[in-house]
Amino acid sequence: MHHLFGLVLAHKDLSRAGDLFSLEDAEIEGSLSEALEQIRIISSAADYQTNDNDQAVVEICITRITTAIRETASIERHGRALVALWESCLEHNLTPSGRDEDAPHAKIASDIMSCILQNYNRPPVMALAVPVAVKFLQRGNKELCRNMSSYLSLAAIAKAELLAEHTETIVRSVLQGAERVFAIFICTPEGPQPQRGDSKHPSGNIQLRTCSLGPFPSHAEGNWGEFSQFDWADSKDLWSCWTSR
Questions:
Q1: 53 within 8 A of 12, measured Cβ to Cβ
Q2: Phi-psi bin for 140: left (phi > 0), alpha (psi -120 to 50), beta?
Q3: N- or C-end of the chain: fewer Cβ atoms within 10 A?
Q4: The pTM is what?
Q5: Which residues contact 15 (CB under 8 A, 6 or more apart)?
């Protein structure tokens, strides 16, 4: 790890954290994955949610890291470490406080989300990110949910197959009252439709349609009430749900 990054993170030194922006992006690029792992450790500490100093250090370091990743186009080299830190946020409270302030781990998740999902046109990155992204849809943070939905709609357009196996989670987030989710993804077959219970999932032969929603379900396109009656235990893919309409 770069000496200054190591110093700032090892000592959680807020007074030196700003100096990271004086370094060239190329100078620190090789240290970014290691720094992300150290941030994951810091943010997983029992007192992190009440430690303002540690939160400030982490916020500055993440900003510096994501900037360097964008400027050096190194998202594919550091994507795994970014996603690991992102996923670790799911282990913590993401619900805003009574003062509508973001929880500390929701701030981390939001900063990393934009860095990762802006690369929706890079399949290797999305293959790592989408399984984690959909988990945030049901974590009770409306702002994260809304922004995640927007990015996922772009990912779906770029490579539909990545979303196909997660349609149950996406639809459940709508059915369970995520009314601010304004982009949902419906797998619709271009060719012959498989029958209920068919084990074959032609995920390479789909198109994804994006719908805009108001409060569920009155402004949704189509008759979504049928989805709430669907027995997910009967089939785990939305192909069968669609053919039951």
A1: yes
A2: left
A3: C
A4: 0.72
A5: none
